[in-house]
Design goal:
The structure holds two protein chains of two kinds.
Chain A: H1 3-20, H2 25-47, H3 55-71, H4 91-94, H5 96-115, H6 121-142
Chain B: H1 2-25, H2 43-53, H3 55-59, E1 77-80, E2 83-86, H4 103-112, H5 127-130, H6 135-145, E3 159-160, H7 168-177, H8 191-201, H9 207-210, E4 228-229, E5 236-237, H10 252-261, H11 274-281, H12 286-298
Antiparallel strand pairs in B: 1-2, 2-3, 4-5
The chains are: A mainly alpha, B mainly alpha.
C-alpha cells in the first residue's frame, strides 16, 4: 500500500523534469532566431553608420550567428510542427532536404565571413548583405506568419 | 385568355430582366479614343510602374531568379477558394504573349478587366486596383513591357469550380465590387500621403492580399488593409494599418527601410510571398517608398 504514493511521486517528478528541464524545440528555435536577429542587428547598425566599427562587436556577433546557423536545423523534430506560436511552415517537414540545404548555406556564408573577419565598415556592409540574403530566402518558403 | 397574357407578360419581364442583367454585367471597355491622346511612353517611368506593380511576382516563371525574372512567361499556379488560376504569359511574344496587343487592348485589361476578345478577365489579375491608375502610367508601362524578352510558353487554362468557371459571372462580381473610387478618404492629406495612396491603392495593389474578402471575393467593408487568413494556404496576412500588432508601432522611416532591405526594426526578416514584393519595392526610388510609408501611417486603424 505504501508503494502506490511512491510510484505516483516518482511519476510526477519524472513528468515535471521532462517538461521543465528541457525547453520545447519550438521555444529553442525561436530563441535562436531572436539571438541571431540581435547579433545581425548589431552588425547592421555598423553597416548603416548608426554605430562605429567595433571589431569586438563584429566578432561576437559573427560567433553568435555561427552558433545559431550550425544548430538551428536540429530543433525541428516530428511533433513540433505547431504550438508555442511556432511560425514554422509545414514545408520544413515536407521538404526537409531543401530546408537543410538553406540552413547549410546560411551556416557556410556565416563561416566564410567569420574566417576573414570584416576589418572596417565597408567589410561589415558586405557581410550584412551576404548573410542577410539568407534570412528572406529561407523565410520565403519555410516561415509562415500566423 | 387572361392566363395567356399573364404568362406573356412574365416572359416579357423576364426577357427585360435578363437583358438588363446582361447589359449591367457586360464587359465595358473604354473606347479606342480614350487611349489615343497619350504622350509617347516614358520607359523610365514605365519601369518604375512595372516595379511598383510587382508584375514579375506572378508573371515570371515560378522560381526564376535575377534577370530570368524579366521573362514574363507566366505559369505560376495561384490557388484560391474559387479554384486554381494559371498566370498567363504577358511577354511581348506575338503569339504566346501580348506582343500584338494595342495600347487600348492593354489599357482595357488593366483598367476595365476586359480581355483582348472583349471577355471579362478574372480579378485574380488585380485590375480592381489598377482601375485607379493614371492613363499615362499605363501607356508608359505598355512601352516598357515591349522592351522585355519574349517567351513562347503557354500557361495551362484556369481550373475553377462552378459557377466561377463561367466568365459571365465575373460581370456580377464587377457590378458588386468593381469601382475606381479611393479606398479610403484622406481629406486634406499632404501630397506625399496622396502619392503613397496612388502607389498602394493603384499599381502596388497591396490591398489585394492585405484586405480580407467575403465569400464572393469582394473586400469586406471597413477592413481596408486589415489583414486576415491567407487565402493561398498556411498562416495569416498581416494587418498593415497603424493598428497592426506587428508593425503599427513602426515609424515611417522604419516602414520605408523594411521595404528597401527586407528587415524589420528588430531585424526579423520579410517572409512568404512578401519576399518578392519587397524585392520589387527595393527597386523603387526612396521617395516612392517614403510615400507608401506615409500613406500606411495615414489610413484608418482597423
Amino acid at each position: 500500500m505504501n508503494f502506490k504514493p511512491v510510484l505516483a511521486a516518482a511519476l510526477v517528478a519524472a513528468f515535471c523534469s521532462s517538461t521543465v528541464m528541457a525547453a520545447e524545440p519550438q521555444e529553442v528555435r525561436q530563441q535562436e532566431m531572436k539571438a541571431g536577429g540581435e547579433a545581425f542587428g548589431a552588425m547592421a547598425a555598423i553597416a548603416k553608420g548608426q554605430k562605429p566599427y567595433d571589431a569586438a562587436v563584429v566578432k561576437a556577433s559573427l560567433e553568435k550567428l555561427a552558433e545559431v546557423s550550425k544548430d538551428f536545423h536540429n530543433h525541428f523534430p516530428k511533433g513540433s510542427e505547431t504550438g508555442y506560436e511556432s511560425e514554422a511552415s509545414i514545408k520544413i517537414w515536407e521538404d526537409s532536404a531543401g530546408f537543410k540545404a538553406a540552413n547549410d548555406k546560411f551556416a557556410a556564408d556565416v563561416a566564410s565571413v567569420l574566417a576573414a573577419l570584416p576589418a572596417d565598415q565597408a567589410g561589415v556592409t558586405a557581410a550584412v548583405g551576404t548573410i542577410g540574403a539568407n534570412c528572406g530566402a529561407c523565410h520565403q518558403t519555410y516561415r509562415v506568419k500566423r | 385568355m387572361r392566363l395567356k397574357s399573364v404568362v406573356a407578360g412574365l416572359v416579357v419581364l423576364a426577357a427585360i430582366g435578363a437583358g438588363g442583367g446582361l447589359w449591367l454585367t457586360a464587359p465595358k471597355p473604354l473606347p479606342e479614343s480614350h487611349w489615343q491622346a497619350l504622350a509617347a511612353p516614358d520607359l523610365g517611368n514605365g519601369e518604375r510602374i512595372f516595379n511598383a506593380g510587382g508584375c514579375v511576382s506572378c508573371h515570371a516563371a515560378p522560381g526564376a531568379e535575377g534577370d530570368a525574372k524579366r521573362v514574363l512567361s507566366g505559369g505560376l499556379a495561384l490557388k484560391s477558394p474559387f479554384g486554381t488560376f494559371h498566370v498567363p504569359n504577358i511577354s511581348p511574344d506575338p503569339k504566346a504573349g501580348i506582343g500584338e496587343w494595342t495600347l487600348a487592348e492593354f489599357g482595357n485589361a488593366m483598367k476595365r478587366g476586359v480581355g483582348r476578345n472583349g471577355e471579362h478577365l478574372y480579378p485574380s489579375f488585380p485590375y480592381g486596383s489598377y482601375a485607379r491608375m493614371k492613363d499615362q502610367d499605363i501607356a508608359d508601362l505598355y512601352g516598357f513591357m515591349k522592351t522585355l524578352p519574349v517567351s513562347n510558353n503557354i500557361a495551362a487554362p484556369h481550373e475553377l469550380g462552378f459557377p466561377f468557371n463561367i466568365r459571365l459571372a465575373v460581370g456580377g462580381w464587377k457590378l458588386l465590387y468593381f469601382n475606381d473610387a479611393p479606398r479610403v478618404e484622406l481629406a486634406g492629406a499632404d501630397p506625399q500621403v496622396l502619392a503613397g495612396q496612388y502607389l498602394v491603392e493603384g499599381p502596388g495593389h497591396c490591398g489585394e492580399c492585405h484586405t480580407p474578402r467575403n465569400a464572393l471575393g469582394g473586400f469586406k467593408a471597413g477592413e481596408w488593409l486589415a489583414g486576415g487568413p491567407n487565402p493561398e494556404g498556411e498562416g495569416r496576412i498581416p494587418d498593415i494599418t497603424p493598428g497592426s500588432k506587428t508593425m503599427g508601432a513602426w515609424s515611417t522611416d522604419e516602414i520605408a527601410a523594411y521595404l528597401e532591405t527586407g528587415f524589420t526594426p528588430d531585424y526579423d526578416s520579410v517572409g512568404g510571398s512578401m519576399v518578392d514584393v519587397q524585392q520589387n519595392m527595393a527597386r523603387l526610388k526612396a521617395e516612392d517608398r517614403a510615400a507608401i510609408a506615409a500613406y500606411l501611417k495615414a489610413v484608418p486603424v482597423r
